[in-house]
Amino acid sequence: MQLSWLDIGIFLVFVFFVVGTSLYKSRKKKETSEDYFLAGRTLFWYLIGFSLIASNISTEQFVGMSGQGAGHVGMAVASYEWIAAITLVFVAIFFLPKFLKSGIFTIPEFLEHRYNPIPRAIMAFYTVIIYVAVTIAAVLYSGGLTLHTIFGIDLTVAVWIIGIIAAFYTTYGGLRAVVWADLIQGSALIIGGALTMILGFIAVGGVSNFFQANADRLHMILPSDHVEIPWTALIVGIWIPNFYYWGLNQYIMQRTLGAKSLRQGQRGVIFAASLKLLIPFIVVFPGIMALQLYKDQLLTADQAYPLLIKNLIPAGLKGFMFAAIFGAVMSSLDSMLNSASTIFTMDLYKRHFKKDASSKSLISIGRIMTVAFVLVGCFIAPQLGNPKFKGIFHYIQDFQGYISPGILAAFVFGIIIKRAPPSAAITALILNVPVYGILHLKYFDNIVFLNKMAITFGILILAMAIVTILKPLAKPKVLPSRGGIDMKPQASVVWLGLAVIAITIALYIIFW
């Protein structure tokens, strides 16, 4: 794709504006670890909401989810988005008050408050490994693939360009830099996605032609023998990665932990939930359009969205789309890097290596690990094009199953069952890997990975129940309180949440 000087200028202005704004907003004469890792707990709802969406919606969605739409899943892949909207409502009302009240820096830290330091260390170790080897590497790969497909940039070179720029402002400014960058980049990717969808509708001959030509791909409920998202997975399986991702995932929850108040945090989460309802229309629809328009040119499903942009975006707008795609990568990558370094610094380094570390030394370690993690991710990313991974979206979801059922079980069981001992959480976290691994043997190939997560979760809950029955705590566990946090959700938050749930149900009925 040829870029005019205007396109190149628009892209460069966008990059400098994002980096400049994030660095300016994150400047501080005297910086503490709370300032660096949690933005001083001063974030307002609109920053939280946009940052949640921008951190989530990256080329992982624009490439992976769009590819699933063009592949054999179709519109049903939107369940990840629409069920996420419902999940976010529960997170805002039930999870967030407990997290803010305890005053935690990281999600693993909550496990120490509820159990003891061992579950915290296990979760922190798991999380860092998954972030670096799976999510960071996947975002780098999908971003590099997009730039390679559209602009012909060498895949490895594209990966390193993305990694270096994201590491630069994330290392300097911490979470405050991340959320301000996400505000700009989140807006750009939504506008860019909407623009692509509109041009796609024009190319396929209008909305009615699109719905008529793709009627067989616009169903949310698929047969029970479907290889990716059968209707059975919607009952339990898909909720496990959703609750883990939106409620217990550091790189998502970190901006809510930095909320100025519970009210600001909850409103930000509900705002993000409402935006999630729009995502399938600007991500999945274009993937289906690409299949309709360029079926013979699609070598792999993951090329659907990049191919649509390459063929549909007119001269003069390529620079903006380049910037929107680049921003989508940056907004997810900066959040992952910031959160991975936060967990390593606060849950592993400070807790187990240097308990008396000063704020200055903690910030230095956080910055060093940000650079280290992006380097590892850049080396892994180019390898993810191997067909054995079945597409980047499947790769991310599948590999997270090695930790998400165990983490969710430890949190949910521990919150509900007050006498659950530390050994119950340790059992769930350790048992997750072999149980999920066994379900990946060829004998169980007929079970989709979402249902494998559900089976794993059920086994782990049973194991925790047995351990608790055999050795319960003598007294119910009382969680610490930071003070000043009202556990009762605002009535307006509850009503807004119910509205989001009602709209989600209506969308399922429409696309049944």
Write structural notes for this entry.
The chain is an all-alpha fold and 512 residues long. The protein has one domain: Sodium/glucose cotransporter, CATH 1.20.1730.10. It is 72% helix and 0% strand. It is built from 21 helices and no strands.
Brief characterization of the structure:
The protein is mainly alpha-helical. It has 21 helices and no strands. It is globular and about 70 Å long.
Tell me the layout of helices and strands.
Elements: H1 5-25, H2 33-38, H3 45-56, H4 59-70, H5 79-102, H6 107-114, H7 117-151, H8 155-203, H9 207-213, H10 239-247, H11 250-257, H12 262-276, H13 279-294, H14 304-312, H15 318-353, H16 359-380, H17 392-400, H18 404-416, H19 422-438, H20 449-470, H21 491-510
How large a portion of the residues is in β-strands, by DSSP E? Answer: under 5%
Total DSSP E strands? 0
Given helix and strand content, the structural type is mainly alpha
* CATH architecture type: Up-down Bundle
What count of structural domains?
1
CATH class: Mainly Alpha
Helix content: over 70%
Low-confidence stretches: none
User: H/E element string?
Assistant: HHHHHHHHHHHHHHHHHHHHH
The termini sit apart by 39 Å
Q: How much is the radius of gyration in Å?
A: 22 Å
Give me the CATH superfamily.
Answer: Sodium/glucose cotransporter
Oligomer: single chain
Please summarize the sheet with the most strands: none
User: What's the number of helices?
Assistant: 21
**Molecular shape:** globular
